[in-house]
Design brief:
The chain is mainly alpha-helical and about 250 residues long. The chain is about 70% helix and about 0% strand.
Amino acid sequence: MHCGLIRPRLYATLPILRDLLHGDTSLINGIVLLCLSLYILALMLDFRSVQITGNPFALLSPSLETLYQLGMGGIIPWQEGRWWSFVTATYLHGSILHIAFNMLWLRRIGPLVEELFGVSRFWIIYSLSGIVGAIISFWSGTFFFVGASGAIFGLLGALIFYGHNRGGTFGSSIFRQMSIWAAIGLLFGFLMPGVDNLGHIGGFGAGLLFAYILSYQEKGVQSLLHHFIATFVFLGVILCFSFMIFYFFI
């Protein structure tokens, strides 16, 4: 009754918007569950090709063929007409350590972004940062890529924008902590072989930009437009996975 919408009951009956308008939902567990499910599926589909080596960074790595079928991104998938891989690649991972690190980061900073920006703006920032990171990787000439790192760096960028823009004791603390974590993440990426650093940087820059465009809760609560955009992005992700599933079986 205090949301300010005209005929709020109309919007509150729509399946996805209903939960977003109530403001009592979180997407973190759903994203983690989807990533874990796809990782386990990738292992099971071609278990004989799973890498079990002494190299911890390659331990329990799904085969390249399986990841390709499930929506791996890169130049080769794009040349094969798999445009949806710019979205689905964000939910795939190349090893046990890869998914473990990414999901730990998401569980650590995701709830903070949901609280400070709202669930709809969190989803927009996360999803679009992942897409921008994938596009940067593609433009840089990467043949294949997977992982949620671009989207997670987008969340870090959003929190850094929040901390700098808000200021004060709390804002400055957020700014310092997230800047340190982002620097560690980038440094770690440059020290490890096979890490898509340009994708990380692209996602980080996108997070800064979208945080600036969308603003955060203390400057303005989420509007109906934010909820509609989040719903549109959600349906877009569903569409991309629908294409992946269709082409998986043909």
